[in-house]
Design brief:
Layout (H helix, E strand, L loop, with lengths): L14 E2 L12 E11 L4 E9 L6 E10 L3 E9 L6 E6 L13 E7 L3 E5 L4 E5 L4 E9 L6 E12 L6 E2 L1 E6 L4 E2 L4 E9 L10 E8 L4 E9 L7 E4 L11 E3 L12 E9 L6 E2 L10 E7 L5 E6 L6 E5 L5 H5 L3
Parallel strand pairs: 9-12, 13-23
Antiparallel strand pairs: 1-2, 2-11, 3-6, 3-10, 4-8, 4-9, 4-11, 5-7, 5-10, 13-22, 14-21, 15-20, 16-19, 16-22, 17-18, 17-20, 23-24
Length: 331
C-alpha cells in the first residue's frame, strides 16, 4: 500500500503549485487535516470537522486525494454550503446526515474506504468551490487493535484551469437496507434499483464506480439495464472483492449512461462468520450493500435506495423524495 508525504499539510489548508511527483493529479492543491484523535482499543465512533479552505477565489476541483490512518473505517468529504461556523476539533456527529441533508446544500464529494485514495475526474469535469469553501470531513473509525491508535486523515483538492471545465460533477450513493445475514451462512442479496422519474440519468454520464460493504462482504456486482428483467451489461464485479480496499473502476473513455426508465442491477454477497445475525447499519459490526458512482453533468449528489420492505418495493433518491424520512430513520 502506497504512503505519501505531503509538502503542504496544515490545519487551515494551503496552496501548492507542485503536484506529488508520483501522482497523476496536477494543478494548484489545497489540503486539510482531520485529527489526530487518540482512540482506545475497541472504540467505534463517527466524528466530524468543519473547516474553510484558504482559496481566495472560486476554484474548479478536478481531483481529490484522501489518506486515512489504520483505524479509519471510512471518510466522507462534503462541500458544505449550509454550515457557517468552523469546528476544527473533531466532535461526535450523526453518520450520513450530510448526504441525506434535505436542503441539498451539503454535498458529498467523495467516500473513501482505502488508506490511500486518488480520485480523478475526466477532462472538462470538476466540482466548483466558492471562495473559502467550507468543507465537512466525516470520519467513521474503529480501533480493532489491543493498543491505542492515533486516527487521522488528510483530504487534498487539486484545481483545474476554469477555462477547461464544461461540466459539474456529482456523486450517487446507491444500495439497499434489506440486509439480514443468519450466523454461519453465506447470503446473497440481488435487487434492481429503478431510477426515479425525477432523476433522469439518461442525460448524465457515469465515469467511475466503487463498491462498498463492511467486513463480511465478499462480492459487489453492478449491471446496467433498461428494466428489472434485463438484459444487463455488467459494469462492476471485482474478483476477488476486497471490502477494505474496494476497486474503483473508471469509465473515462466510454462513460456509462442509464437508459431512461432504466436502472442498476445490484448484487452483494456476505459470509457471516460471527455467531449472531447481522443486519443493515452504519456500524462496522453491521453490514451495507452499496456502490458509489461519480457522474456529470450534476443533478445533485444523492443517496439512492431500493427496498422491498414496503408494498411493491420502493426506489428513492435523497434529498428530493417525500419518502426520504423512511431512510433517514435507519441511520
Amino acid at each position: 500500500m502506497r504512503r505519501f508525504v505531503f509538502a503542504c499539510v496544515v490545519i487551515a489548508g494551503c496552496g501548492s503549485e507542485a503536484a506529488r511527483p508520483d501522482s497523476g493529479l496536477t494543478g494548484n492543491m489545497f489540503s486539510m487535516k482531520w485529527g489526530p484523535v487518540d482512540v482506545n482499543p475497541g472504540k467505534e465512533d463517527t466524528q466530524c470537522i468543519w473547516m474553510r479552505l484558504d482559496n481566495e477565489t472560486e476554484i474548479k476541483v478536478h481531483g481529490l486525494h484522501n489518506v486515512l490512518s489504520t483505524a479509519s473505517h471510512h471518510l466522507i468529504v462534503y462541500k458544505d454550503d449550509m454550515d457557517m461556523t468552523e469546528q476544527t476539533t473533531p466532535v461526535p456527529c450523526q453518520p450520513f446526515t450530510g448526504a441525506l441533508n434535505s436542503t441539498g446544500m451539503v454535498m458529498p464529494l467523495a467516500i473513501t474506504q482505502k488508506e490511500d485514495d486518488e480520485i480523478y475526474l475526466p477532462d472538462g469535469v470538476a466540482y466548483t468551490f466558492a471562495p473559502h469553501q467550507m468543507i465537512k470531513l466525516e470520519m467513521h473509525y474503529l480501533n480493532t487493535s489491543d493498543a491505542m491508535e492515533a486516527v487521522n486523515a488528510t483530504a487534498s483538492f487539486y484545481v483545474a484551469d476554469p477555462a477547461t471545465v464544461k461540466y459539474e460533477a456529482a456523486l450517487l450513493f446507491t444500495g439497499s437496507p434489506d440486509i439480514d445475514l443468519p450466523p454461519g451462512q453465506t447470503t446473497t442479496l440481488h435487487q434492481f434499483f429503478k431510477v426515479p422519474p425525477y432523476l433522469d440519468l439518461s442525460q448524465s454520464k457515469i465515469f467511475a464506480i466503487t463498491g462498498h460493504t463492511h467486513a463480511l462482504g465478499t462480492k459487489v456486482k453492478v449491471g446496467v439495464g433498461a428494466s428489472k428483467t434485463g438484459p444487463f451489461t455488467e459494469v462492476y464485479n471485482p474478483s476477488p472483492f476486497a471490502w477494505s480496499e474496494p476497486e474503483t473502476k473508471n469509465f473515462f473513455e466510454n462513460p456509462l449512461v442509464i437508459p431512461k426508465d432504466g436502472g442498476m442491477d445490484l448484487t452483494c454477497e456476505w459470509t457471516n462468520t460471527t455467531g449472531s445475525a447481522v443486519k443493515f447499519g452504519e456500524s462496522a459490526t453491521q453490514e451495507m450493500c452499496f456502490f458509489w458512482a461519480y457522474y456529470y453533468p450534476s443533478q445533485g449528489s444523492k443517496v439512492c435506495f431500493h427496498t422491498d420492505q414496503y408494498a411493491n418495493g420502493i426506489d428513492l433518491c435523497c434529498p428530493g423524495d417525500s419518502l426520504c424520512s423512511l431512510i433517514e430513520d435507519r441511520f
